[in-house]
Design brief:
The structure holds 2 protein chains of 2 kinds. Chain A is of the alpha+beta class. Chain A has 28 helices and 12 strands. In chain A, strands 2, 3, 4, 5, 6 and 7 form a 6-stranded antiparallel beta sheet that branches. Chain A has a 4-stranded antiparallel beta sheet with strand order 10-11-9-12, with helices on both faces. A two-stranded parallel sheet of chain A has the order 1-8. Helices cover about 30% and strands about 40% of the residues of chain B. The chains are: A alpha+beta, B alpha+beta. At the A-B interface, helix 3, helix 4, helix 7 and strand 4 of A face strand 3, helix 4, helix 5 and helix 6 of B.
Chain lengths: ~800, ~220
């Protein structure tokens, strides 16, 4: 029988050569170009479309989000303050030595001197917000009264210019406004410290050398943090907050799962193929085909998107199911005619069905490709490239590469004919109709109580231990890193600052009423020119005037008139404005530069960060009321996007059923269409019903899985239709492909990542059901259509 | 008259310079101080839950002949915080604890988060001084000096961090059985002298009412 393989025609040989050249080219491309720069993306959010904003808003938000994602906060604690400080020094040294971090801050660098220098040069135009408000509201007397109190108490010791030079404490107040908020931490020596009843904690802030979503950064940073934790002495402990640990944990978990599930699945598929086909060659070809499909998918994604998302890989594992399906149809075709079969027969007999199945499946993915959704595009690209490559291997490679073994395995055909007999015996009877009605009712009630959930928890969940750490850090600092912030935009730097000042005035009111803990804004340290001129007017009218508040303060402190006259005369006459350029050039601006985006953004933009949000609606109102201000709320945006796309995918799914119906009606005639579409449609509906009863929430990913079900269910129908002349072979191959798909996806139902679990659970249920429904709807019809019209016996119970 | 005053001032200045030179010439450590001159007072403080006393606060400014003077009472609750209560020439109270700063002027309390960072730093420093917590002081300051004479001691402090040095150039504390006086020199040349009187140690834990005032 081995001589059979060489009998295929010249067309087959040519196709094989072209295919071989394609595969070689693919592997060369993969080895030389793709593999060296392969980057697996693990940020789930990267899959979601960015808000439908102007390009510049996205750029500004991305820039800041990336900077924020690089931050790592470490709290090192011990029973004594000295112990905590020593431990913190050790941790900082380990982190610095690791090269994973661009910067590790333990000792707070003194900026008061730089800030004071900047203030001295512009003291005629600078005022703390509080004192500006008092002077503007005519409450200057209060400033004088507070200053006189401070002069007699330790409070006054914090004056950087001295009482004689700054009797009203204007410099003191201005410099205090510059201190960025650190929550509950206070400066002890040169370190930021949090005191608790039985422990002291030292704050270390660090910045990663790269993006937390790159695996080399994750590995280096987590190794450094682990090493630092290992080196802690007895009684010392550390808590870490930062994106990198979550990204790392999620990536590791996803990779472990891919490895474990992949191994289990491969082993199971191998066992299955050996049992059914009784030879190693189908197995080897199946593995080769899967590998080609996978490499093609990765190559296409890396070339088109410059990275491969972990979700595309997970979805790609369905390729093993899908592509193996094509192989199975090919190999199983032999059971049709075990003695005289040639691979060319298979090409001719199942080739058409495989191509048609491929076209309907691709149709779905092409629609995904057209959507403005980066994640769906990646998944679709991966699957299209993989399916096309895998399918071409079956159609053009197998006829030459496959040599059917001498022995024909008996087990497979036996199962095939057993199943065929069972399903062929099935009829619509009173009992089965009642059962169907019961299932329909069950599904309808289930769907009615279905829980739709679009929040971000559907996407990813960090390990509880990490969430516990984040919680501890947030509790100790009494402020969490808020993911929500304001984006301020304007035509130029001054417009941005003016808008910020309108915004911060509104935020001050929220802080005063305890609706907001704190905020940080550039305009606190770099006021707009408009504000600086207002400051100048107020200062000259109320403070620096010959009988102004400052002169009165000097008098009350006991300076004589001559000394006061000298001081008034010595005051600089002009007051140069503080320009953004001066400000940026000063080291004093360093803590705020992250917020000042104007350098790369057009129009100009800045960020106002928030801490301790207690009333998000009040912030939304402000964002609505103040022109040029947007509240960026990534979590709400994600939920909204998940919702929008869930709805859109729902409608698209319905539309694709119609399109697929149209395609199928051209091939099989419209009368056959309902029985081809019914299995996947019914399986989807019953699965949703089941989820309703089980309390499994439905999200975008559930619907994406139903999308896959559509393609696979139609495949089953097509093969059963095609295989009418050798029904038991078709039943066998459809059953085998359903099992491989279940193996591929069923395991995902046990994933720790919520959205992967959604996909797994949906497919586990829906694939089983669509196999069952395909068998019920196509097998009896196949038998009866020889005798009577298939459709006349169905639909009306006898 | 003028010349006498000038001479007197010069002598004063010289004496002070000499004293300063003495103190700041000899670097020391917290351990050395606790083993030496501070052994007895530190032991006394170690047993106490609270420290109370009166203070006189004098601020000397260049160009003003008379210092700005205030006086009042203070309470340090160990591990909790400090209450600095100025009674004259006006009533003003600052309570600093892990829960923040509360300012009470003529009986009206308000939390002042705006002033908190710098004020907390200064008042915490006072708290560490009053409880002779040299370990805490040594993390903020370089330590100098030790025993002067007759069981009296004098310790010099210089800030380690640049930020604090913007406000305080150096400080000296002096005492015998307990702390008697603190002298602070500002970066801009002003000087502050704080005297402590009637210092009392209490080994009993603070009452719930007292703790409540500190926001505990």
């Amino acid at each position: 029988m081995s001589s059979i393989a060489v009998t295929h025609d010249r067309g087959g040989r040519l196709r094989f050569r072209v295919w071989l050249a394609f595969v070689v080219a693919l592997f060369v491309l993969f080895g030389l170009v793709v593999w060296p720069r392969l980057q697996v993306e693990t940020d789930i959010v990267a899959l979601l479309p960015t808000e439908q904003n102007a390009e510049d808003v996205n750029r500004a938000v991305d820039q800041f989000s990336q900077a924020l994602a690089r931050k790592v906060i470490v709290l090192v604690g011990a029973a004594t303050l000295d112990g905590a400080k020593d431990a913190a020094r050790g941790v900082a040294a380990t982190l610095r030595a690791s090269n994973a971090f661009a910067q590790v801050d333990l000792e707070v660098r003194g900026r008061a001197g730089d800030q004071l220098a900047l203030y001295r040069a512009h003291r005629g135009v600078l005022l703390a917000n509080r004192q500006f408000a008092r002077l503007r509201d005519g409450a200057g007397e209060q400033i004088l009264r507070d200053a006189m109190r401070a002069a007699y108490t330790p409070t006054g010791l914090t004056s950087p210019l001295g009482l004689a030079d700054d009797p009203l404490g204007l410099a003191t107040a201005y410099l205090q406004q510059q201190v960025p908020a650190f929550g509950a931490a206070h400066l002890d020596g040169d370190m930021l410290v949090i005191d608790e009843a039985a422990a002291h904690y030292v704050l270390i802030t660090a910045e990663l050398a790269g993006t937390p979503f790159a695996s080399d950064t994750q590995v280096a940073a987590m190794a450094a943090l682990d090493a630092a934790r290992q080196q802690l002495g007895d009684g010392a402990r550390m808590w870490v907050s930062g994106t990198v640990q979550h990204a790392s944990a999620i990536a590791n978990r996803a990779q472990n799962e891919l490895a474990v599930f992949g191994t289990l699945e491969t082993a199971a598929v191998m066992a299955l193929l050996i049992t059914v086909f009784g030879a190693l060659r189908p197995l080897a070809l199946g593995a080769l085909t899967t590998a080609i499909a996978f490499v093609a998918g990765i190559t296409a994604n890396q070339l088109l998107f410059a990275k491969v998302h972990i979700l595309a890989l997970v979805f790609g594992s369905s390729l093993i199911g899908g592509v193996i399906d094509y192989s199975i149809h090919f190999f199983a075709d032999r059971f049709r005619n075990p003695s005289g079969w040639t691979t060319q027969d298979a090409y001719e007999h199942v080739g058409g069905a495989i191509l048609l199945g491929l076209v309907t499946t691709l149709l779905g993915y092409v629609v995904l490709l057209l959507m403005p959704f980066p994640g769906l595009r990646q998944i679709a690209t991966f699957c299209i490239a993989g399916l096309v490559a895998g399918c071409s291997a079956v159609l053009y490679g197998y006829p030459t590469l496959y040599r059917a073994p001498q022995r024909v395995a008996a087990f497979g055909p036996r199962i095939g004919s057993l199943l065929t007999r069972r399903f062929a015996a099935w009829r619509w009877t009173a009992t089965t109709t009642a059962l169907a009605a019961l299932v329909a009712g069950f599904a309808a009630f289930g769907i009615a109580r279905l829980e739709l959930r679009d929040d971000v928890t559907a996407l990813q969940a960090s390990p509880p231990a990490l969430l516990e750490q984040e919680h501890r850090v947030a509790t100790l600092l009494r402020s969490a890193l808020e993911s929500r912030y304001f984006l301020v935009r304007g035509a130029d730097a001054q417009r941005v600052l003016e808008t910020e000042e309108r915004l911060t005035a509104a935020l001050d009111a929220l802080v005063a009423t305890d609706k907001l803990g704190t905020y940080t804004a550039v305009s606190r340290t770099l006021p707009s020119f408009v504000r600086q001129r207002e400051n100048q007017t107020l200062l000259q009218r109320d403070v620096f005037a010959p009988n102004g508040l400052q002169a009165r303060a000097w008098t009350q402190l006991g300076f004589d008139t001559d000394a006061i006259a000298r001081k008034v005369a010595a005051a600089p006459a002009d007051a140069p404005l503080l320009t953004p350029e001066d400000w940026l050039a000063s080291p004093a601006s360093e803590p705020y530069r992250l917020l000042w985006l104007h350098r790369d953004a057009t129009p100009y933009a800045s960020i106002v960060t928030l801490g301790g949000i207690k009333d998000i609606d009040a912030l939304r109102t402000i964002a609505h009321d103040v022109d040029g201000v947007r509240l960026i709320d990534r979590i709400a945006t994600i939920s909204e996007v998940l919702h929008r796309y869930r709805v859109a995918i729902g409608w698209l799914l319905a539309a694709v059923y119609l399109v697929a119906g149209a395609v199928l009606s051209r091939r099989f005639g419209w009368r056959e269409v309902p029985s081809l579409l019914a299995p996947s449609a019914a399986a989807s509906v019953v699965t949703l019903g089941l989820f309703g009863w089980l309390g499994v929430p439905v999200n975008l990913f559930t619907l994406l899985s139903l999308w896959l079900v559509l393609g696979l269910g139609i495949d089953y129908g097509i093969f059963l239709r095609h295989g009418r002349t050798a029904l038991s072979t078709a039943v066998l191959s459809v059953t085998l492909s359903a099992i491989t798909t279940l193996l591929a996806f069923g395991l995902l139902a046990f994933s720790a990542t919520p959205f992967i679990r959604s996909i797994g659970a949906t497919l586990l249920s829906a694939i089983t059901l669509s196999w069952l429904f395909a068998m019920l709807s196509c097998v009896p019809g196949a038998r009866t259509d020889v005798v009577v019209d298939a459709r006349s016996t169905r639909g009306s119970p006898p | 008259m003028t010349s006498t005053r000038t001479t007197l001032l010069a002598v004063c200045a010289l004496t002070m310079l000499a004293a300063r030179a003495d103190v700041f010439d000899r670097p020391t450590t917290a351990d050395a101080l606790l083993a030496g001159p501070l052994a007895a007072p530190a032991k006394q403080i170690a047993d106490a839950q609270s420290i109370r006393g009166r203070f006189v606060f004098k601020r000397y400014l260049a160009d003003i002949p008379k210092p700005l003077e205030s006086s009042g009472e203070y309470v340090v609750l160990k591990g909790i915080g400090i209450d600095w209560h100025t009674l004259a020439p006006f009533d003003s109270e600052s309570i600093v604890s892990g829960n923040g700063v509360t300012q009470i002027d003529e009986g009206a309390a308000r939390r002042t988060d705006a002033d908190a960072p710098a004020m907390q730093a200064v008042i915490r420093m006072l708290s560490a001084l009053l409880s002779l917590d040299v370990a805490a002081l040594s993390s903020t300051f370089e330590l100098f000096g030790g025993t002067a004479a007759d069981g009296r001691w004098q310790i010099g402090l210089r800030p380690r961090a640049q930020d604090l040095a913007t406000f305080v150039r150096e400080a000296t504390i002096a005492g015998a059985a307990q702390i008697d006086a603190v002298s602070l020199r500002d970066a801009n040349g002003d000087r502050t002298e704080i005297e402590f009187h009637d210092v009392a140690y209490d080994a009993a834990p603070p009452s719930p009412a007292e703790r409540a005032r500190f926001g505990e």
